[in-house]
Amino acid sequence: MSTMHLYQGAMASTTGLAVPRTSRRHLHLSDDPLVIVGYHLAGEPAAPVAMMWGRSATRPHMFVVPEPRERSTRFEALSAFATELVAYMTAASDPQIVLANPATASWLLKFVGRFTRYVRVDGATPAPVSIREAGGHLTFLHQEYMTPGSSTVLTAVDALTQHFRTGQMPSEDQNLAALLGWVRPGSGMTGLDAAMLAEATDPPSGPMSDPSWDREVLEEASELWRSAEGDADLQRHARRRLEDGARDALDPGWNQVWTTLGIMSGLPEAASVAHRRADDMRRFRDHRDRAAAGQMFFRIQPEASGSAWLLQRHERTDEQLRAEMVLDDPLLMAAVLTDEPAISGTVIGVEPTHVERDTRQRRRPLLRIRLDLATYATESVDLYGVATPELVVRVRNATDEIVEVVIVKGANNATSEHRIPTVGSHVVFSPYRVREFRNGSSLRATPWTHTLPEIGDDTPGTARSLEVGHE
Amino acid sequence: MTTSGSSGTGADSSGFRGEFPSATPTTRRIAEGLSLPACERRRVLDSEGIDLRKLSRLLTQDNGQQSPFLIRRTQQFERRVLSNGMADVIDLARRELDLRIEEVKQSVIDAASIRDAVPGLTPDQVDRQRADRTAAYLRDMLTQPSVAVNLLQKPLIRLRLGGREVLVEQDLMVCAAANETVHLVDIESFAEIDGYLDPEQVGQTMAACAVAVISLRQMATTMGVDPKRISDRMLLVTPSQTGFTPVGRLLNLSHHIARLEVLIDNLDRLCDANGLADELGATGAPGANLPAMPLTPGTDDWAAAERRAWEAISPLATHLTEACMSCPMFRACRREAQTTRSVTVLGTGAAQEAGGVFSVTRSIELANGATPASPAEAGIAAALVRARLATEAAMRTVAVAPANEAESEDVEDEGGAVS
Amino acid sequence: MSESGSNFESLAASTAPRAAAESPVALSRLAIDRISSLLDASTPVVLVDSPPGAGKSTLVREMARRQAPHRRQVPIVVQTNAQADDMVASLVAEMNAGLGAKLRIGRLHASENYSPPPDLRVLPQVTYAMKIDDLAHTHIVIAPAMKWAFVDDIDNQWPFAIIDEVYQMRSDALQPIGRLMGSLLAVGDPGQIKPFTVLDEGQWRNLDISPIESAAATLLKTRPDTVRVALPVSWRLPAHSADLVSRAFYASSFVAGSAPEERSLTLPIGALTDPYDQAVRIAAAGGWAMVELPGGSAPKLDLEVADAVACTVLALVDGNVEVHDGGRTEPLHALRVAVGTAHTAQVDAVRRALREQCIALGRVVPAVEISTANRLQGREFDVTIVWHPLSGRTDPGRFHLDPGRMCVLLSRHRHACIIVGRAGILDQLLLTPPPAEYRAEAESDVDGWAAHRIVLDHLAGRRVGVEP
Prior knowledge:
By secondary structure, chain B is of the alpha+beta class. Helix content of chain B is 48%, strand content 12%. A six-stranded mixed β-sheet of chain B has the order 3-4-7-8-9-10, with helices on both faces. In chain B, strands 1-2 form a two-stranded antiparallel ribbon. In chain B, strands 5-6 form a two-stranded antiparallel ribbon. Chain B is globular and about 80 Å long. Chain C has 17 helices and 19 strands. The chains are: A alpha+beta, B alpha+beta, C alpha/beta. Chains A and B meet through helix 1, helix 3, helix 8, helix 12 and strand 13 of A and helix 4, helix 13, helix 14, helix 15 and helix 16 of B.
């Protein structure tokens, strides 16, 4: 953790309001998002209980599962959602799924996706085809959620914590109601009061329901449903009871997600968001093509070459993302200036023909800079110009007020020396720069060094048949 | 499997507990307390056998109850695993532990069955009977494993903790005894998905089982048996994928045992829990020990009891961290930290970063340029000032050119060298 | 299979250090001959655990020279350009001394921007190229892993190759290379800093082969027939350090190559008024000392500790210390002293503290090296001063207790190591509960908590209290 994190938290606690971490919005917002909130049975992610979804804040769709432990009622309920999800993923022009929190993303996209994407659509108890298709989409969406910089899947908690710092613990921020209490407390209340109130009164935003709701609403409705076996009217009544109870429980979370989107739209979009979104859409279109051709394939466990390649790609993307965010946003750069080696100041002296006493005798123009802030920068770290990224500098001498740096790249010969900053100009050098993607090693077959020995039928990586439900 | 232990209401007039209800702690609760060793409150509450759930309800109105569906699932899975002569456990023990259990023999030693067997005992005597029988069964497992009872329901094991002996309850204790060793078998209802178990759940389970092994080893030593014969390798049985088919995994508890044993040994030396508790109890001064549990929330009685309970607890030191979120006392301790503007409300990371600066207010004062009053403050003061200056400079940039991206970039540009 | 504690059985008998009967030289030679015969027998994977200062790079070069005549070409995979250049330089030096004089070396490099160090640029034995084909005439080819990853495997296959720093190499870096080579000699130090990722680790750990584990860990999983040999001697660490470092950080033990009488530090007799002088004397006498400030929690940037480190530096370089090393005697030189810390900000703080103290004393700042553990890897000094990573820290987590970083800091010295930190570290450690989250691979790794405890127990009788 960093000093800026501490400072911003202390400011939030003192002022009674969440403090902005950014001056820009670093994610894309679609005009036509699909918001989903839901609950599953305690301890059983395979048993959804209720879900609320939709493309408009005022008209959500909902399903409930009066008997969550029974496979057939589960699939029946899921199929309406699945059909809509498939339609959205096939046709939406600016697709974006918005969930309440990371735990919901992990449950719905990873777990539910995993257990529905190869579900049997034939045989004795077939599942609706829409569920299988939805499973493929959910799995793709999970991959997008795990991809640094992707805006295809957002969670309200991630969006808010990325852009604001509250006066409570980061783990407490996972409660969307409390988090929103800090960001938008409403009139007359401090962020703390609003957060504590929300924590005490608001139902959870998912994927786990409140145990007393389970006891008072779900269990009762389930009982009613079971005892109404065969009586269609009574069952309808039981279902409606559960729907009402589920709506009461999910409405707050639903509204909180839409409120979050509203808050986000109030921030100006950062410059790099557009090109990251273009990358998102490229991947999305590839996925859409595969889905259309019936070719959504996923491995349960990626084999070694796939995971190595993905790791490197994600690391590169993450590095790029961090650099873009910092360079797009002065407030994020302020955090860098506080906690990382970086320089911000005014040039008070320039020696354009300065040479370093190493064996190469190369020209390394020297800059003397009066610092805005004392710097951490040490000698062996390359720093890049923020407005002039071609400049690469290294620190040679530093006190609390003055630093001397030499330019090691970008202004070292006759053609490039025009880039040398002039006396009186303000300069910022940071450890971040955006660069062209280099071609990484491409996906190849797994070599012997990364192939596990045969151990029988349980060889990893083989697809296993998947059934949702108990025996 | 562990659930909350039996509640007693016998008053302990000479101690901290006073008339407040007691509860036999479980291994899970002991392990949870040990995961917060800097917290004097937990230490006193645990070693005094206080019913933590009731205390939490008194102080925070938090019921802390589990979902009935989770309870049912846990019971169902347990029933499944224990059914059929525990064929699944026998099979998994052979596969994962390389152990042959011939047959499962079980015994129930909960309070009710002891009272049936020997009527007229006081609660304390009942508990002692249970503990003695548990010890006898353990001895059997160690000396005659082939005929011993290897499944105990509601055993009570003895644990030396903080200089005193604590009776710790387990819901179920299954032991695979063979080849001169006794292995703990634990049944949990969280699932293994594609070979993967939730790391936090497994960590908590391992800590609780390590406490059990430590206690069993202490008991073995008392019997004159080599404690190492209680193995540090355990079998965890969980449901596989989305169904109820049990699957087993061998877990190595040696690191947990080593560290928890050291922790237990050093708790007394480093934190004078018992001394403080005794001191509090012995004065008999009003407010020094806990009140009786009141009946109805919202009444004057309740409010008075809440106040008195808090007066008894607040002198005990605490150290609020994010790990506290699973403790029943969390909301009460957090409220206190909020009132005192402690820097711990910001989380473990921020509190560590602040080092010797303990309050949010002071952090802001230092950021605003207040002179550090100690070297500890000096260490973080410069960085806090830097954070403030950097933030203010950035805010000025943003304010000057809010709408137009290009213009705002020029303002922070290296003048004269626009690329 | 995990990195530590397994697969040693085949070699334990022949390489375990015996009592005084076997000299370190003989033990070491035994291990090296064993490795060589395993290679001659075309063992698919030979994994060599090399403790600090055990002569790992010497081994790599010797094996390359021994194998080169039987193979058309021997590739050597290193991790950085600097390591590749160092290896070229050492091979050339050894050639000039008569070892492998007829061999030709190829240095494969990635881009036009690379240029060899000036003294290596024009040598008859060395060819520099960006394409492997241009090095067809060479016997030994050296390049960093990242460059080997781009070598095309259709036309290029080697039956045998050598990997250096296999414990620091990340599995995903080995993955594209595996197809190039049929069998491996993999050498590295298992006690030192392991690979990691800046991304959230959770997603990457839960795989049968995790791309963020070390290449060594992967090889142990995929090739259970790997033969593992531990080099039994550290030529760097003195007798009183080898045992401690071995016990704390390594699954297989090693001994010091030097006898106790071969290494020592001496100082003139003086009055023991200054606690920093006392600490230097204790370190000189027994190899270890701890400078202990009053206890208490402190921020990462503990300025009082930084000051104390600077005082220790000055006490050391001004103490008229004489270094006796294998028959030679020299005054202790500032360049042979290093300060090691866990964090970059601490490096900065020590530099400032040292500068301020020197200005106050009216003297030049001594040219001691001040760096983080990361940057000190692979380097050697006469005496090191270490800012204890756990000083002032409450609630140390897995990251802070990481043994690799501590091992690097404590294994850089030939003579002595002085540790600086606040009192109460051991108590804090004893009160630290086990990690809340379960990690399968952590079970068999060296436990950082236990390692730190071993070190602190050893320092118990060697402490000097200082007031800030």
